[in-house]
Amino acid sequence: MTQEKSEHTNLPIVVAALYHFARFPDFKNFQEPLLDVCNDNGIKGTLLLAHEGINGTVSGSRAGIDALLKFIRSNHLFADLVHKESFTDEQPFYRMKVRLKKEIVTMGVEDIDPNKIVGTYVAPEKWNELISDPDTIVIDTRNDYEVAIGTFEGAVDPKTKTFREFPDWVRQQKELNKDTKIAMFCTGGIRCEKSTAFMKQEGFDDVYHLEGGILKYLEEVPKEASKWQGDCFVFDERVSVGHGLVQGDYDQCHACRMPLSDEDMKLPSYEKGISCLHCIDKKSDEDRTRFRDRQLQVELAKKRGEKHIGS
Asked: Are 226 and 214 in contact, with CB atoms under 8 Å apart?
């Protein structure tokens, strides 16, 4: 078990990203005790349970996160679970959810099992060398809105809206020969576990993925040596992080959840909590009326010194 370090460990809120693939037929019975431990320790966030394991991001105090991780690892299936940590000064989640799912990361392809077969892990300090090789095709396995705010130099963007679209995208790439050297990456590593397993199942032999994902790379590789460009989207109220896992410069549209730059928020399409350039033509007048009502409640709660759950 490794404990992640950061120059920002003095910040009071620990954000822990975790996943572990395991054959877990009894996952439904784990839901209630796991939620109890989270609630007892003031943990917020989301954890997903499925027959293939556990996945999620949670936040809380140092003692609370340690207690949760101890509980999860007390199950022999998750004894080797590795997590990644970052730190912030405000709680990035507002509620705690433990959900039962068909998959802990949804690809929608039957019989993909990272416990059986997976690509070759590449440590962050070795990643630059791999992706600098002109014979290597580097593929970003994340969705288009994530890629839009940051990615690695020279990476291919599949322009997928969801991870379910990734298998079809691969099958349409005629230039990908079975002996092509392929390097894949994602936010924390979990999507690459499945995407590399899928690639191996499809007959690709020379497949690699970034161990610990972008988050581990940004934590360990100095900015001056980095091949990462931009910010990394994260699925909490921080919206994005940069090198050293410092909170980035992006905000988020609370109507469609898309990341927004300062320039995006200066456009006529942007109305705080109601619309942005990504959703202005996709939401109805009824939607916007509902969003305005919600935003009003958010602002009123703010004036009272409270956090509105819908913010």
From this structure: no
199 vs 156: CA distance, rounded Å: 16
Catalytic residue check, 186: yes
In the chain, domain spans: 13-100, 120-230, 259-303
For 71-160, list the strands marked E by DSSP: 82-88, 96-100, 120-122, 136-140, 150-152
Catalytic residue among 38, 186, 256, 279: 186
Residue range 219-245, pLDDT digits in tens: 999 999 999 999 999 988 889 999 999
Its CATH architecture, for the domain 120-230, is 3-Layer(aba) Sandwich (3.40)
Q: Which residues of the chain form beta strands (DSSP E)?
A: 13-21, 44-50, 53-60, 82-88, 96-100, 120-122, 136-140, 150-152, 181-185, 207-210, 228-230, 232-233, 240-241, 251-252, 259-260
Domain 13-100 part of CATH 3.30.70.100: yes
Q: What is the pTM of this model?
A: 0.84
pLDDT per position as a tens digit, 59-96: 999 999 999 999 999 999 999 999 988 888 888 888 99
